[in-house]
Structure formats: C-alpha cells, structure tokens
Specification:
mainly alpha; two-stranded antiparallel ribbon
C-alpha cells in the first residue's frame, strides 16, 4: 500500500525507539511485550525514587529535575494515552488498559468518538478495497499476457501485507492452476514436437 511504509521484520528492542509506528504480532506476544515495558518503566521509577532519596544532595537534584520527570511520566502514562484500536471490525472499538480508572475510560471514550466522527473504519476499508482492486488489476494484466509467474508474485506480495484475504487468495489459486495447466500444455506440445521429429527422422533413415 502506498500509504504504508513497510520496513520488514524488526527486533523487540525497536519497539521503544520510535522508528516504527506500528509493530504487528500475535496477541500473546504483544501482551508480553507491553507488560514487560510497563514493568520495566515501574522498575526504573522505583530505582529513581530510591536514588533521589539517598541523601540531601540527591533530594535537591530531584527538586530541580521534578518538571522533567513529570513530563516523562506523563508521556508514558496509559491513563492519558487512551487505548488500542481493534482492527478488522465494522465499528470503532478501543481496548483500554486493564487497570484504567475513570480518567483512562474517559480518554478511551473520546478516542472512540473521534474515530467514529472521522470515519476511521470507512477510510480504512476504502484504502484496503483500493489496494485489493489495484493488485488484482495489475496481476490480471500479467496473467492476460500469460506471465503467470509475475501475476503470482504480485498477489503473493499483496498477501504478505493482507494475510488471509479471501479474494486475493482465491485469485492466487486460479493463477497457480492456470500456470500449472500452461506448463503441462507446453510440455505436451514439446513432447509432440519431439515425437514428430523422431518419426520424421525414422522415415528419413528408413
């Protein structure tokens, strides 16, 4: 998709650096990653509190650092960030943090309302439909020219971005069958041509 810059596979450490906007994984792995990050953040916060309470000098340093620490804490606060959008549904659905309180629920509700007002689901569907249509058109052009290898490659690349898409999968199966039939027909034609040349050679030598 033109609007998506797919960077390929990434390491778990890339999750926190901001070089990517979306990391896709299965739910179990994603939950472990999020909870690990959350636990790491709490651990760092605990260690910082201990360090700042170590002596009078560190307490003074903490006082001057309070604004910066507050900003960092706010940027990592799940209560202020809202939740995660569920994709693949016909309506806007937001999954909030399991420990969300009133403020967190309020942010999630606003997030869902904004998604509904902006027709997020409809725009995503239009984008996916356009991508599917463009892919099928491009693949069909190669298939018409009997270049089934290229048509299959295009559909395969598209399915890497839209795994399980029924329309693309069905069309891929059709082109694979047509390519197999073409290979078989070409093989039979070559065999017939070879047989004809063999008969001709026998007649000539006979």
């Amino acid at each position: 998709m033109d609007c998506i810059n797919y960077v390929g596979n990434v390491e778990a450490r890339d999750l926190m650096f901001g070089d990517i906007d979306v990391m896709v994984c299965d739910g179990f792995t994603g939950n472990i990653a999020m909870k690990a990050c959350e636990g790491c953040g709490k651990s760092i916060a605990t260690q910082m509190k201990k360090a700042f309470k170590k002596n009078l000098w560190t307490m003074i340093c903490a006082l001057f650092s309070k604004g910066v620490i507050k900003d960092i804490k706010g940027s990592m606060d799940y209560e202020s960030c809202g939740g995660a959008m569920f994709l693949g549904l016909s309506k806007a659905v937001v999954k909030g943090h399991g420990n969300s309180k009133a403020r967190g629920f309020s942010v999630c509700i606003h997030q869902a309302a904004n998604a509904a007002r902006g027709d997020m689901v409809g725009k995503m569907k239009e984008m996916i439909d356009k991508f599917r249509k463009d892919t099928l058109t491009q693949a069909a052009a190669y298939a018409t020219a009997k270049n089934y290898e290229k048509a299959i490659e295009i559909l395969g690349n598209a399915l890497a971005q839209m795994p399980g898409d029924e329309t693309l999968t069905n069309q891929l199966t059709v082109y694979q069958q047509e390519m197999a039939a073409k290979i078989e027909a070409d093989a039979l034609a070559k065999a017939a041509e070879l047989a004809g040349k063999t008969d001709l050679l026998r007649e000539t030598l006979g």
